[in-house]
Amino acid sequence: MIGTEFLDYLSKFQVATYVGVEDFADKFNFLITVMVLMLCTTIVTIKQYMMKPISCYMATDLGGKNLLDYVENYCWVQGTVPIAYSGRVPETDEGWAELEKHKLREYLISTF
């Protein structure tokens, strides 16, 4: 019921008529898929930029809230390195270079 009302509302805009869509599958692919992708992009954007974006492990307490925000933003930009709980932190540049290959990065795909 809500889906048909929503599609009727979208049909008022007549966006899908000039593209050459032929049936319901074409309309669904042209309109609904884009809306679902935009909704997912919005959810990820809100999660990353308005809520707590990423958790960085810090062994000691940092002085002040601004420094904590800085470290979390640094982790967001640089990515995180997975180290097992029983694993050791590398002490040489070669060890860090090896971990760099396995760095976890989050990518935000958005359309403007």
What does this structure look like?
- This protein is mostly helical and 112 residues long.
- 52% of the residues lie in helices and 0% in strands.
- It is built from 4 helices and no strands.
- The chain has helices at 2-11, 24-49, 65-78, 93-100.
- The longest helix is centred in the N-terminal third of the chain and has 26 residues, at 24-49.
- It is elongated and about 60 Å long.
- Residues 106-112 have low confidence and may be disordered.
- It comes from Schistosoma mattheei.
The end-to-end span amounts to 32 Å
Task: Give the overall shape.
Answer: elongated
> What percentage of amino acids are in beta strands?
under 5%
Q: Main sheet, how many strands, which sense, barrel?
A: none
Main attributes of the structure:
112 residues, mainly alpha, 2 domains, 52% helix, elongated, disordered C terminus
Outline:
The chain is 52% helix and 0% strand. It has helices at 2-11, 24-49, 65-78, 93-100. The longest helix is centred in the N-terminal third of the chain and has 26 residues, at 24-49.
Lay out the secondary structure.
Elements: H1 2-11, H2 24-49, H3 65-78, H4 93-100
